[in-house]
Amino acid sequence: xxxxxxxxxxxxxxxxxxxxxxxxxxxxxxxxxxxxxxxxxxxxxxxxxxxxxxxxxxxxxxxxxxxxxxxxxxxxxxxxxxxxxxxxxxxxxxxxxxxxxxxxxxxxxxxxxxxxxxxxxxxxxxxxxxxxxxxxxxxxxxxxxx
Length: 146
Fold this sequence. Notes:
66% of the residues lie in helices and 5% in strands. By secondary structure, the chain is mainly alpha-helical. It has one domain (2-136): Beta-Lactamase (2-Layer Sandwich). α1 packs antiparallel against α3.
């Protein structure tokens, strides 16, 4: 009878072990895999953000370079000179916006907020843009690229 009780106890222990050992192995493997995937995800996110930041910096550098080139074309010109040279400036600005994908269009506004030249439409629209944020931002001081 005592050997039978010992056998039953061993069978119960073997049954418990057959359930618990795979459970703990699976739990350990899952936790280890979770930690590895978490750290790999963090590393990839940081790398992706670095690439996106670099792309954004390069885009703004290209935009600033394009704006500087456009400003060189109109520097020293009065509003009347810009309007008189509008067809030539339009073609130059159009070349900039066509060859540089990140630049959608270039516009030059006079002191009243009217478009003097644009790379998008020829001739530029006659409406006033003096109520727009991009115009108001530059009234008091040169705020750089807006």
